[in-house]
């Protein structure tokens, strides 16, 4: 989806209300850049030197991190930005997550604490670099005052301040308390990236040692004295509600402490989670499906297919006059493409521990947006926001699932209100997959008119399907202007086509939708890049060279395309039976091209190698970029090969990894990352490598078999016979 624009997916907080699952919108307090240099407060024995930096007497530097760590390495990269301008010893740096409760109490001094849209680095770099520079200048000023010398004669490096004329030096820890009392300067100078010595170098993540020794506590690991456990069963039919639950059906089961009825679910609370789950499975429950019991894949497909020819649509972008130009084309091609609903399948299923007391609420939650978690808990408990304490836990995967809607927090608080001890609610894997907030399904009809040389004279794209933005804010209705719907096809359209039109029709369904890694980019890149290969084939031009012609006025996209092709030795020899495909895309402010090398044997697809070239503008930690790219490729490949949530009788048919398959390690390809940082902007990393994978793979399959893939996942395709 679009990572900027009129309706950014992180520009509002959305929380499910405790009463009947309605939506409560709370707009976040805007972050004021001056917050980076807010007056310091005491932090135990170690003083704050700006709200971002705490320096102990032993020179340990604790850097506060506002964004969530969920495996992407954000804590390390963000800490590097501060440390670079702070001029501290990186070996003595540790990271600490910002408390959302304290952030609220201190007037949002740390600003936006949400994590998504691949923007942790991009959206934070300005004020984090200034925070480091500000703290550095405060430390230098404190040392200069101690020595009674001009500040200009002092410099900082490696956690020491040195007075050049006398050669005297003092450590950061020795002057931190004095520095904390100095008024922060308003104009601390930050380094230019060309002068970086730490940022831009490959660094191991700060959490590696703890992770390999089993130190981090994830939300699913939380243990509290006297804690009870809750297992939940939700209405199988989307949009359905609870009619009744027969507690007598589980009477006498060991360890059961109670049954809690929610609007669309029922929970069993027991002295262990396994006992709670066994009882929940045995509980007799009646549901009201609210008329959604006939919803099916077939019905949704008919609705979306009809929208491809609907007379009215929202215009995403219009260049020239495509309708007038198409009849002048020497040749016209049209193709329909389709993608399914997709689940997130986080390693850690949804979970939250809540303790509701008369004086407030505590929650232990895995959240990409802890302020939304806080507001959700407050609404559910019926208390002011200030009465909620959120303990931020490590996330066992996010991918957008734990972002703007956190119904698992509401459920946990609703359940815990009935007990005077903490209650940990954990969804089973079956509940997690069958009640996800899915990436929307969709269809596209693409038509292009080629000139005599085979290049596109006109191109139209009609998109249709559900909108996750419309699902988040249903009051806007199906006519919502959702710029994320045309992600990669609107302002980020890469190709030189004189007459171009993309429009879309939103098709509401009862299927719950949410944020998914790169969301609409993943759909639209598949449509566009596969169809572009069709145009290249029709023109008799190599697909890489065809893209090069169309990217003549888009130097950044052209640069990553060339880098990927060069690294992959495009046009060079391959092992027998192995073929290449290529795709390029812009997402979350970054440019990415990928070449996939794959084979098809006996109808089975095997991906051997993926080369990904990425321009994110600046690179803070190349090692994290490489790891994120590898993870993105595996995530995208899983979806392309297997990912599919199908709907029957109003419910998801998949409920565990036997029916919602994951890529196995043995099937993972070699992933090579080529960084092409142009250095004049700040883009994202975690999501941009996802969208090009599926089209590059499908284009490789065409090269191998002669068969065009116009719908996913590939497991549904008959690839046993080449065309």
Describe this structure in words.
With 723 residues, the chain is α+β, with helices and mostly antiparallel strands. The protein has a seven-stranded mixed sheet with strand order 13-14-11-21-18-19-20. The radius of gyration is 27 Å and the shape is globular.
Number of helices: 17
Q: Any low-confidence stretches, pLDDT <50, length ≥5? A: 1-43
Radius of gyration: 27 Å
Mean pLDDT metric: 93
Number of strands: 30
Could you tell me how far the N terminus lies from the C terminus, measured between alpha carbons in angstroms? 35 Å
Structural class: alpha+beta
Which word captures the global form?
globular
Bin the strand percentage: 15-25%
Summarize the amount of helix as a percent range.
25-40%
Q: What strand line-up does the widest sheet have?
A: 13-14-11-21-18-19-20
Q: Biggest sheet, open or closed, and with what strands and sense?
A: 7 strands, mixed
Q: Concise description?
A:
With 723 residues, the chain is an alpha+beta fold. It is built from 17 helices and 30 strands.
Q: Descriptors for this entry?
A:
17 helices; globular; five-stranded mixed β-sheet; single chain; alpha+beta; 30 strands
Task: Itemize the secondary structure elements and their pairings.
Blueprint: E1 13-16, E2 23-26, E3 42-43, E4 46-47, E5 53-55, E6 61-65, H1 74-86, E7 93-97, H2 100-105, H3 120-147, E8 154-157, E9 160-163, E10 168-171, H4 172-180, H5 208-212, E11 228-234, E12 241-246, E13 256-262, E14 265-270, H6 273-282, E15 284-288, H7 297-307, E16 314-319, H8 322-325, E17 331-339, E18 351-357, E19 360-365, H9 370-381, E20 388-392, H10 407-416, E21 423-426, H11 429-434, E22 442-450, E23 456-465, H12 468-472, E24 499-506, H13 519-539, H14 543-550, H15 555-568, E25 578-587, E26 590-601, E27 604-615, H16 622-641, E28 647-648, E29 651-652, E30 670-675, H17 693-705
Parallel strand pairs: 6-7, 11-21, 19-20, 23-24, 27-30
Antiparallel strand pairs: 1-2, 3-4, 5-6, 8-9, 9-10, 11-14, 12-15, 13-14, 16-24, 17-22, 18-19, 18-21, 22-23, 25-26, 26-27, 28-29
